[in-house]
Design a protein that fits this description.
Length: 186
Amino acid sequence: MPGEEMVGRLLVARPRLVDPHFGRSVVLVLDHGDHGTLGVVLDRPMPVPVDRVLPPWHDRVARPATLFQGGPVGLDSAMGVAVLDPALPPPRGVHRVVGPFGLVDLDADPDVVLRGVVGVRIFAGHAGWGAGQLAAELAERSWFVLASRASDVLTPTADGLWRHVMRRQGGDLALLSTSPADARLN
């Protein structure tokens, strides 16, 4: 899938993907090209409140106000993903990625940033694939590539996001949403 068409889409782990970092995960793709792919895992809240790492953002992020593990890469860095107000240009401190999604400069004044966004989520680390790596995983049928919604980033019930995204697809994917995480329990 060409780069522009992947950015802003979701990579949704197929039930057979058992990698501990990505099993039953939903990843928002933020960059994709010949150089590789970068995204954030949307459904891995951490037991770390935002105020422990970025106190000015604690009362300004979408609930729950915890860090989310964006992936296994760069866990010592933080990335802010914003859902932008479609009626306004991105505020200072936010770079539009695609559609309603933008990246937040976490050194910017939160009050300025929030003037043009619906909500912000902060991720520790990110998911990354080297050149050709994601294409190989897609060929192995490890992921579904699905349309995203702004609400996917800001959902307060991240632990149910995989099932919710699968269910809204209808048909066979909705049926897969009911499969147990461990098929041996079926």
